[in-house]
TrEMBL record:
One of its GO terms (biological process) is GPI anchor biosynthetic process. GO terms for cellular component: endoplasmic reticulum membrane; Golgi membrane. Residues 61-207 form the CWH43-like N-terminal domain. The keyword Cytoplasm does not apply. Pfam families: Frag1. This is CWH43-like N-terminal domain-containing protein. It comes from Ancylostoma ceylanicum.
Length: 237
């Protein structure tokens, strides 16, 4: 990481790997740290945790922690990029909402936010894998081929985990089965790790790339010369 200052301009060059570590790994590590902290220092809360609103009297030792935390130019390729940029934003909004609005605050909004996050994440894995394949980078080296295979594996297994939550939690609400809630919580914990590790694959995709962040002075306004209202014709020689 280097910094430069010249004529009121401040520039900072950041390695792509540094940004990947900060943006992809830290949220997942922070989430698992909160879970570990709860099990170590608040174990009495976990042992007495119950879904009092949906299933009173049903206890679960798995506490749901709120997560506060040169390409082709074909039309199909451009459309994938278009939708990819939209689902990236919807995943961000859903993740923030599901972290801030927990089930005690508003269950319906929390469930909607979770659905937005998990659906957007699965679409992002799909779009990322498609672009990786059709962008041509897969054939450039064996490393990118391995990364693509990892992405395909994570998308397939992540989709199965996501669909399992759509079955296990309604099953818990309908019959108050602790096993269903356990299955839902385990799948959700795994999906948090999936989310961090999938985006962390960029660490190996961009080994020598840098991003330049800069603060520049606003361009000065240039006043145009006043145009005279009358034009005097000069006689030709």
């Amino acid at each position: 990481m280097t910094a430069m200052a010249n004529d009121g301009t401040v520039e900072r060059m950041l390695k792509m790997r540094f940004i990947v570590c900060m943006g992809a790994l830290l949220p997942g590590i922070g989430c698992y740290f909160c879970i570990a902290y709860t099990y170590i220092f608040q174990f009495d809360v976990i042992m007495n945790f119950t879904q009092s609103d949906q299933c009173p009297g049903v206890h679960s030792w798995l506490y749901r922690r709120a997560f506060r935390n040169a390409a082709p130019k074909s039309l199909a390729y451009r459309r994938v990029i278009y939708f990819y940029t939209r689902t990236m934003w919807s995943e961000l909004v859903g993740l923030v909402a599901v972290s801030v609005l927990d089930i005690k605050c508003n269950f319906v909004i929390h469930a909607i936010a979770y659905s937005i996050w998990i659906i957007s994440f699965n679409f992002n894995m799909l779009f990322n894998t498609i672009l990786h394949h059709f962008g041509g980078i897969r054939e450039t080296s064996q490393k990118y081929e391995v990364i693509w295979r990892i992405k395909v594996f994570m998308f397939v297994t992540g989709l199965i985990l996501s669909l399992s939550t759509a079955i296990s939690y309604p099953l818990f609400l309908a019959y108050c089965l602790p096993q269903a809630y356990l299955a839902f919580s385990v799948a959700e914990y795994l999906l948090v790790g999936y989310n961090s590790f999938f985006y962390c694959l960029s660490y190996w995709e961009f080994p020598r790339c840098r991003l330049t962040l800069g603060v520049f002075d606003a361009p000065k306004k240039v006043r145009c010369a006043t145009v005279p209202s009358t034009i005097v014709k000069l006689p030709l020689a």
